[in-house]
Amino acid sequence: MKKCIFILLFCGLVINLFSQNTQLPILNIRAYLNNYEIEGPIYKNIYAPPVQGNDFLSAFVKLTNIFRLLDVEVRINNNIIEINGERTGIISINYINQSNIRINSSNRGGEISQNLTNNAIIIISNEYYIQISIVRYLINGALRQEDDRVILYTPDYERIDLPLTLNDCFMALDNLLTNEVKQDIKNSEVRSLVRYHMGLGMWIRNNWLRQSNNRITGLLYNNGLRNFDEMSQLIIIGYHYYLNGINKKIEELINEI
Fold first, then answer.
1. What is the pLDDT of residue 55?
2. What is the pTM of this model?
3. Angle at 29 between CA 27 and CA 30, to 5 degrees
4. 187-208 burial, b if ≥16 CB within 10 A, otherwise e?
């Protein structure tokens, strides 16, 4: 009798696992962890809210493939996923179904216990796939996307694509901004540059400052700035002076934020 009950329970588990298989479109892009390509197909996240342009940051990659690139141990026992390593800490994921996923993590010096967002992990061809943005959250990393690829960076990776100095920022803004915007910044009074806080300032915060604790973020932090709003405003004010042929040091710019 006990044997029959065990067989029925096992069959029910297998049927439940297979019944949750999901069919999603495959994206014609590549996914990377730092310099290493994450093997396997990348699936479009049809559950994510629509955004303007391409949105690869929440695409699905094979869970075992991305975590093994982090040199951590991954063990899967039925619907329990155990991850253990220096870069991740101890992570336990209980996959009940696609809309009911529980995570416990001891990463980043504290304990986290919460329900993951719906569809954070899905099953495709009887394999677990995870949103790359969820892995970014679990390792406290950063994400970057281009036309044909998405890249997950670990916190310890040196991002040479990010500006290192204020002058690097200014040269990058030269290539980024239109002549009209550059002329407006050049001719504006410093106090009126605050109108760029939500547009250009947000772009700087999202694409440079929040991407790494090193590079330009580390430089400004070491000079006493403690929040991204101040950092982005300093860069814009410094760019104003740069366009006017005036070279001001960080210490001088801090006084004008």
1. 84
2. 0.74
3. 125
4. ebeeeebeebeeebbeebbeeb
